[in-house]
Design brief:
This protein is of the alpha+beta class. It has three helices and two strands, in the order αβααβ. α1 runs parallel beside α3.
């Protein structure tokens, strides 16, 4: 997610506020990024803060959980 946001920021960040939908099959990741679940791992908190800093410059971000196909 961090590397994707860095790429988006570099490629399209100067175009003004963006509307982004992040889709993932990990409900835990989606809920943590959306702020509904807390992070328990201290080393992930560093990455999480970097993600949130970049996120604040991008515009509107929606998180969507997509269940894995069985």
């Amino acid at each position: 997610v961090l590397e994707a946001y860095k790429f988006i920021q570099k490629k399209w960040g100067s175009q003004g506020p963006l509307k982004i939908e992040l889709r993932a099959d990990s409900r835990l990741v989606i809920e943590q990024l959306a702020g509904r679940f807390k992070l328990k791992s201290p080393h992930l908190a560093v990455i999480f803060r970097q993600i949130k800093e970049i996120e604040s410059t991008l515009g509107s971000i929606q998180y969507t959980h997509v269940p894995r196909a069985d």
